[in-house]
Amino acid sequence: MLSLGIFRADRNLNSGLQCSDADNSTSESSFRVNLDNLLGLLTEKGPSSNGFFKTTVGRKSGKIYGLMQCRGDVSAENCANCTRESVAVALRDCLKSKEVQVWFTWCFLRYSNEHFFGVWDQSSAAIVNETNFDNASVISRGIVFMSEVAITAPKQPLMFHTAVLDAGQFGKRYGMAQCTRDISRTDCSRCLDTQLMTFRTTIGNKRGWEVYGSSCSMWYHDYQFYSNISITANDGDRRLSLHGVAIGITMAVLLFLFVP
């Protein structure tokens, strides 16, 4: 995971990975068939369904629930590429796990043998460049600005919102917030508010940060990173592997909050 703020263009980086403990039953043919079918459906249907798709495969105890979502500004082509990248990472690094979440900058993949649709999951991770401090006069405005983004996003049709803060001589700040479309608008609002409150001391004085969660995510930078339509997928890797433990990488600060 590379420190944020060093890139001046939006790039599709592997931002996080969470795998449940290894389960030998994943090697059973029925689970493998169901998982392959599920991932195939998510890859096929998601990009052409306005960047969001959820479905189930299998019956009774063999049922698998899956969801994919792309960032609201990402083109269908980049959404498809990102989804394929996420599936490849899941199968490579979480092959024996029944509960998997993969975050890329442009998309999110999640599947589980437990029902999670419509349930607000408070797990979130904040990524910041610890040395990239903002001007003191901009800090408070930035927090208020992102609070307004968080208020607006749940009201939008796709629960996705972008905005620009004009900080005068200090330039502009760009914000984005998005919730997974399986949760309610009320839970979307609660999710974004909780992220801001939880990580306020970590992100509050930084020029750039990103927060990735199971139900919502937020981005804040001093350059326009959104509305990408042509940047090639996965230029570089800032992968974090999470197996119940938070791991920090040089020049970056990562905090992961697990709420039972």
Automatic annotation (TrEMBL):
UniProt-annotated location(s): Secreted
The keyword Membrane is assigned to this record: yes
PROSITE patterns (UniProt xref): GNK2
Keywords per UniProt: Membrane, Repeat, Secreted, Signal, Transmembrane, Transmembrane helix
Signal peptide: none
Residues annotated as domain Gnk2-homologous: 13-116, 120-225
Residue intervals passing through the bilayer: 240-259
InterPro entries in UniProt: CRR_secretory_protein, GNK2, GNK2_sf
Gene3D superfamilies: Gnk2 domain, C-X8-C-X2-C motif (3.30.430.20)
Family from the record: Belongs to the cysteine-rich repeat secretory protein family.
PANTHER family (UniProt xref): CYSTEINE-RICH REPEAT SECRETORY PROTEIN 38-RELATED (PTHR32411), GNK2-HOMOLOGOUS DOMAIN-CONTAINING PROTEIN (PTHR32411:SF51)
Protein name: Gnk2-homologous domain-containing protein
Organism phylogeny: Eukaryota, Viridiplantae, Streptophyta, Embryophyta, Tracheophyta
